[in-house]
């Protein structure tokens, strides 16, 4: 996925089937880490010294870690108590696959984070279904 970010940094046009928001976030993390777009992230190649891959991987880990509070708020919006919502968020926190995927420069943590945000937004919208057309109802509708 890093090569797509490098192509965004270089301004190179390419066609891709997938939505660009995740790749733009990866490109942003590459840009902030000081990557100039010269390395194309070929498989098996060693990272040059000027590539700050630790920051890029850490930014994906931060995005992946945002899923836990979204899971907690979703559980609370669905009517779970604090203990049950904490347990549900703990299940997400301790999910081994999510921990592993969030360590790499992949689109999966971004996708999961956006899905968790959308589920939380829908749960918040559904919680306020009896207050139709109120300000909070419109806010949650816009969030989804």
Features:
144 residues, mainly alpha
* Helical content band: 55-70%
Number of helices: 8
What coarse outline follows from CA principal-axis ratios?
Answer: elongated
What sequence of helices (H) and strands (E) makes up the elements?
Answer: HHHHHHHH
First and last CA, distance: 27 Å
The helix-and-strand class reads: mainly alpha
According to DSSP, the number of beta strands is 0
Give the integer mean of the pLDDT values: 88
Classify the beta-strand content into a percent band.
under 5%
For the largest beta-sheet, the strand count, sense and barrel status come to: none
| Parts with pLDDT < 50 across at least 5 consecutive residues | none
Q: How large is the radius of gyration?
A: 18 Å
